[in-house]
Amino acid sequence: MSSDASGRRDFHPLRYGQCWEDADILLEALDIRPGHVCLSIASGGDNTLALLSRRPDRVIALDLSPAQIACLELRVAAYRELCHEELLELIGSLPSSRRQDHYRRCRSRLSADTRAFWDTRPETIALGIGGAGKFERYLAMFRTHVLPLAHPRERTLRLLRAMPRDERESFYEGRWDTWRWRLLFRLFFSRLLMGRLGRDPAFFRYVRGSVAEEILGHTRHALTALNPSENPYLQWILTGRHLTALPCALRPENFDVIRAHLDRLEWHCCSLERFLETRKEHSIDRFNLSDVFEYVSPHNYSRLLERLVHAGGSGGRLAYWNMLVHRCRPPEMADRLRPLTALAWRLHAEDKAFFYRAFVVEEIV
What we know:
The structure is a single chain. By secondary structure, the chain is an alpha/beta fold. It has helices at residues 23-30, 46-52, 66-81, 84-91, 99-107, 112-119, 122-127, 134-150, 153-159, 165-176, 179-188, 191-198, 211-224, 232-239, 252-260, 272-276, 298-311, 341-349, and strands spanning 37-41, 58-63, 265-269, 284-288, 312-322, 337-339, 358-364. The chain has a seven-stranded mixed β-sheet. The chain starts with 22 loop residues before the first helix and ends with a strand.
């Protein structure tokens, strides 16, 4: 079995310069302990590294894309070579004119393929590798060309300040939720523009309904029910860097423990299906599956889920996101996989990466 997405997408460009799933809810969902073996979709690398903060015995990162593997590998080199502030500068969380110097210090730790990938992208490094992906460039277009047509910068910065929920709701209703904001948002985050500029048309093969309208509703939740001053994903979208909040892997309290456990991390450029063919039964305890099921048919989703359950042991956990396509354990697997629905719903309500329809947590019986 091969992934639906692998046959339709071009995996050579870098799609994501950072992870757009909330590692805080991921870590709580997976409840990683010392002794665990974890399997993680690499993507931008942040959430794979965040798993190391819980000190598992081993983390195995996979991605179909050599570019995403290069993204993870450069982060690993940065944790080894740089101090915390320099790491934030290289990512783009902090403004800096030293990013090329930081990269040169990391370069000797990279494989030949990863060096070749980053050596040809000096402008990308100079701007911060967290903004290197197609999706981040899409968000940058929104931030620089669309958002200013709806709101001046001072209003955007006001939105990101700490304030009580009732004030956030009042500000959103009275100052932010204008007809111009709604119109521009619906146009820019339409299926057509997001497919061409942000993700890939193949990602929408199984999507039904209005993409923009659903994301607009999630955005309102992030701007009112959640606190924007504590949301690194929202801050990057609206300003291009992290102002008052950082993702889990970039927080200072996690830097040293991640660095100390980098030898427990390995990565492979291959499909999830291909990797699982090599695994023994009951050999993996925790699965960070990102949103990989978004891009496969219901039939192939069920087949892949069977393989994951085979590789996991009793009590093992799977965590994954639904953005626009509904995927959760099929009824025929009820005797092998138990949904942790209450936990998943609670965590989804707290999800700072707010554009997802659902967060799914399931436990192997």
